Amino acid sequence: MAEISCSFQESIPGAYFIWFYNDEEMSILRGVIQLTPEGSVLPLRTEEDLLQAGMAGKTKHLDSFLFMLSLGESAPEPDIVLQTSNASELANWDSYLNICFEQLKRIKAGSNSAILPMAPAMQEEALAEGLLLKRAVKSGRNFKTRYFMLFPDARLMYYTPKDSKAKGDVRHGEMKGVMQLTADFFCSDWNGKKYGFTVSDLQTTFYLSAQSSEEKLFWVGTITGVIRNLIFREEAMTDHFLEPQESVAER
Fold first, then answer.
1. Looking only at Cα atoms, what is the longest distance across the chain?
2. 146-180, pLDDT tens digit by residue?
3. What is the pLDDT of residues 117-152, one digit of tens each?
4. Phi/psi class of residue 14: alpha, beta or left (left: φ > 0; alpha: ψ in -120 to 50)?
5. For the chain, what is the HEC assignment?
6. pTM here?
7. Residue 54, exposed/middle/buried by CB under 10 A (0-12, 13-18, 19+)?
8. pLDDT along the chain (251 residues), means of 10
9. What is the C-alpha to C-alpha distance for residues 171 and 160, in angstroms, rounded to an integer?
């Protein structure tokens, strides 16, 4: 079993992809898998699960945090066995993928029911976090201090500041919103506030202000880096689908 790193992304609403990289630094893209409504996920926890995955007799793998990802008979590689690092990650992937498959089935069936809520995001360290001044999106008049966190999957989440009475390792209050960055976003300077900058895709724009020039440079640089990575992934995905797809198992 080759050792690779995986990243999950909803590139556009209702289109889910798993990206395979050569290492944890995600420096070289090895392949892309698009989930389909016919797909399913099976954690390999029992001997019966191993038998279904074609791994009969390999009971040593029962505690290896494996799961089988099935993509449907029409896929170039219908079944793929993947390994996570621990039981928590296995449960996370299982929950997240099952929700995605259920949502894809609803979309295919033309269901008018509300879109299913997504599973909690896989635990990742924030690339950047801290207090920023944010202008109200609707009125454009008042400003409020929010605690922002930028994650590797391009979520820019913001919360109320930490309650002064809160105890323990508490960094923020309740979540107020999230902006899912895409390749269409960009950062630019904004002179409306000292150390101001914007994050925008021309449809939605956040007007933000940092607490110093150094913090502003850090935020703009980090957000721009995430956007550049999204652009790279989008271009790589296009190239990948234009070329004959190599089986992940052969890598």
1. 67
2. 999 998 888 898 999 987 665 656 678 888 888 88
3. 444 444 467 889 999 999 988 777 899 999 999 988
4. left
5. CCCCEEEEEEEECCEEEEEEECCCCCCCEEEEEECCCCCEEEECCCHHHHHHCCCCCCHHHCCCCEEEEECCCCCCCCEEEEECCCHHHHHHHHHHHHHHHHHHHHHHHCCCCCCCCCCCCCCCCCCEEEEEEEECCCCCCCEEEEEEEECCCCEEEEEEECCCCCCCCCCEEEEEEEEECCCCCEEEECCCCCCEEEEECCCCEEEEECCCHHHHHHHHHHHHHHHHHHHHHHHHHHHHHHCCCCCHHHC
6. 0.50
7. exposed
8. 52 64 62 80 80 68 77 73 80 79 76 42 73 88 92 87 68 84 92 94 93 92 88 66 47 46
9. 10
- Structure tokens belonging to residue 152: 């590797």
Residue type, 239: D
Task: For residue 121, give both structure tokens.
Answer: 């995001």
Q: Which two tokens stand for residue 112?
A: 């008018």
